Amino acid sequence: MGLFDSIKKFIGNRDKLPEQKQQAKPTNLPSIKKHHKITDPSRAFIIHSDIENLIWIKNGPKQNYLPETKSSESFAVGNYNITISFLGMEEPSLIDMNAEMKEPKDYVSVARPPYYPSYSSLNPEQKYIYWRFLGNPYESQADISYVFLLYYGLERHLFTHDFERSIEVILKLREVHTNESFQSYSGNAIVLSCLLHQRADLMTLFIQSLNEEYKRKFSASLYLLAIHSFDKPLEAQDLTRLAKTFGFTKMNYIKEYPDLFNGYLEQYMQETFNRELLILSELLPDINDLPLVEMRLFANVSLSDKTIKVPDLTKSDTIQKTIFNLLNNAHESVKKKLVEMRKKNMVPKKKETNKPKKKLQFNSSEERRLLGELKKYYNRPIDRHFTLIQLQDFYYKYRELDDKYLQECIKYCYADIDTLEELNKAYIKNEIDRVKKIADLKPEKEVEIEISEIKQKQFYYNIPAFKRLAIIYEKSSQFDYAIDICKQAVKYYSERGVDTEEFEKRMMKLTEKTK
């Protein structure tokens, strides 16, 4: 019996789960009969004023969306053009005002929306919860699926309509929703929108918002491209934040003595550039010969079916060497200064970098929900894949409570890897079906090319299980197992034309450790 067959048996034979406690009904909602069809949600719910005119409506008196044929938007960065495609697919956040919804009997028991949600795919209870969410999208406890559903529509506005207000709303959403994928997609899209509309002022607003580490989880390449294009200066704190991007890994002084480190960094910038600022366009006026980096920028699948290639400033030898040397010089100066200060017993207090850990308590209800989702999506490979990722994250979080949770994480990592071929076939079929649905809107040759690309690239997205297993095995000194996982990852990604440098470097490091 294979591992996944064992998991299927394990799931199927679990004891009947105890009933969950019913969550109290919110008191701030209008009184609506349960299971009663709501014919006009706009009267039953109050939409937050920030997003009132940014919601896409399919029908009724407030309709603001019409189906569109495929079009594209191009803009120049130096002599390089970036093109954004609008596919003619229906906007996933599009609200059907005639769709039925009903208030759940038990909010906790309502299943989460699928990983790539659309309003049309929500069941009546999920639609009700989504409308509640639209009343206050800044509630930090909101399910991230509903946040993404709203974000899809805002992302469309970034490139087609009210981009200024959309950026303002997205910046506010980024303050409270710390999900890494959301931060990554929204950060990339804001930068690209600023480039498209040539709005240096909005780019400045975005840069000023990056005051927390979790907000910086987006493409450094795209960020530097915007900094270069708008002639924005990089300050000392920007260089330390991006230090690893430029190959600088000695982070202890940056974390422990940031004021002292930045002071020396500003000193070296002053000596080098006659100001405490670095202008990338002065270091590298022409970016057209740089290698390109490929990235999928949009969460909204109706905006672009392909990744976009942009010049990668992190690969510039001039920029790399200049910034690395500045950081390294500051590091050496801090080291010498600390030696002097220790002799005089005047060493400054280290900055507290580790917040006190909250005592973890295992979330049994979340475990039941995720296992229920896995059972529900067992025969739907794409939904199952994303549920397995959630299970991996869930059990890994509790690994220090009990080793059994780490073993559960490992089990679901392998369950995902062992079924990648099935996932791949389902993804190819779904993508080809999607292209064929809108084939009438495109030239026949273009449809053929898109289908050919789908078959060639296959499911080329990140598979977190590879990296997670490699880390787990490395930490437990099981280097041979970690190397084997890296080999599988390299094989998988290389077959799809995805960069394998991360796993190749990891393999080299692991091989050294085995010696």
Give a quick precis of the structure.
With 515 residues, the chain is mainly alpha-helical. It is built from 21 helices and 6 strands.
Report on the architecture of this protein.
The protein is 53% helix and 5% strand. The chain contains 21 helices and six strands. It has helices spanning 3-12, 41-44, 124-135, 144-160, 163-176, 180-197, 200-209, 220-229, 236-241, 252-256, 258-273, 280-283, 317-343, 364-376, 381-397, 403-418, 420-437, 444-457, 464-475, 479-494, 501-514, and strands at residues 71-77, 80-86, 233-234, 278-279, 292-295, 308-311. The strands form three sheets. A two-stranded antiparallel ribbon has the order 1-2. Strands 3-4 form a two-stranded antiparallel ribbon. The longest helix is centred in the middle third of the chain and has 27 residues, at 317-343. The protein is globular. The two termini are 36 Å apart. The model is unreliable at 6-36 (pLDDT under 50).
